[in-house]
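Transport permease protein, pasting as requested.
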Amino acid sequence: MQQSLIFPLLILSGMLLPLDAGPEWMRAIAAVNPVNWVVQAERALFAGDFGAIEIAWGWVAALAVAVVGLWVGIRAMRRSS
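Structure tokens follow.
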């Protein structure tokens, strides 16, 4: 179940494939994909642009993904027991 969710998120984040030449619908989905924001933050950090706003949005997105993942994991464990 998790792989069927994470793989499209990775494809639509621009981490595996460049999105610049992709179709408009793909770029629109990538704009709201939290993994894309984390990737943009990592690129800014690797470029040495430590004051970029993408880094702040990357932190927000990473925390949101972590909270949702924790909630889903706890819920799944409670249901299994």
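Note for the archive: Residues 2-80 form one domain.
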